[in-house]
Amino acid sequence: MDVLRQAGFAGLSAQVHACRSCPRLVKWREESAADPPRRFQGEDYWAKPMSGFGDPAARLAIVGLAPAAHGANRTGRMFTGDRSGDWLYAALHRAGFANRPGSERRDDGLQLLDAYVTAVVRCAPPANRPTPVERDNCLPYLERELALLESCRTIVALGAFAWDGSLRAIQALGGERPRPKPLFGHGSEASAGRWTLLGCYHPSQQNTFTGRLTEPMLDAVFARARTLTET
Q1: First to last CA, the chain
Q2: Whether 113 contacts 55, CB under 8 Å
Q3: Is 226 helix (H, G, I), strand (E, B) or coil?
Q4: pLDDT tens digits, residue range 51-77?
Q5: How many whole angstroms separate alpha carbon 68 and alpha carbon 124?
Q6: What is the largest CA-CA distance in the chain?
């Protein structure tokens, strides 16, 4: 990675980690850290906004909704320390985008290969429901990440919120937004700017426990992403 791009990622991460633009989210992330569930009591929570994680030369970006209050907000790494991350990183490992299938701590040796994981909103929101204002406050961070990911041409959006946020970020970067707006669905595919956007149900427990999202369904999306990154 060239020095200027490395500095760009480092500077962006520092700005994200210091952000206090959304009072409701600041309050929630800090209250969650101060009063954790019994299984996490005594742990030192990250309790700050989350920067993206992965390969700066990635051809694939994975965009989620926001950190989980007792997942990334606790561990300090996107999709790390919760069931959603267990599903996501296991699928990335099966597709060759990660060196291991687990995601327990930010220092556990997990490395992403040709992939970068991020989110539309950078703080854990109450009930996993950011407001439109909170989304718009965070979107410039996603825009800057996509601009720095110069080799990225494929985006997997985990859920409708990430699908919409990705389209908004692409439009802000000067990419043409398809008309009519492409509808989100599992396996949906749309061209926007220099990117191909793939839709995937979010690997939340609400989807995985009910069978709305299965491992073969998740694998099919990342198999398609692999094909797109290699063509």
Answers
A1: 22
A2: yes
A3: helix
A4: 999 999 999 999 999 999 999 999 999
A5: 5
A6: 51
60 — phi, psi (to 5°)? -125, 130
Cα–Cα distance between 68 and 45 in angstroms, integer?
12
CA 49 – CA 14 distance, rounded (Å)? 10
pLDDT, position 179: 82
Cβ partners under 8 Å of residue 57, min gap 6: 1, 114, 151
What Cα–Cα distance (Å) separates residue 208 from each residue in 79, 86, 151? 15, 11, 31
155 bridge partner residues: 61, 197
Which parts of the chain have pLDDT scores under 70? 1
The model carries a pTM of 0.95
Q: Which CATH number fits domain 3-229: 3.40.640.10, 3.40.470.10, 3.30.460.10, 1.20.272.10?
A: 3.40.470.10
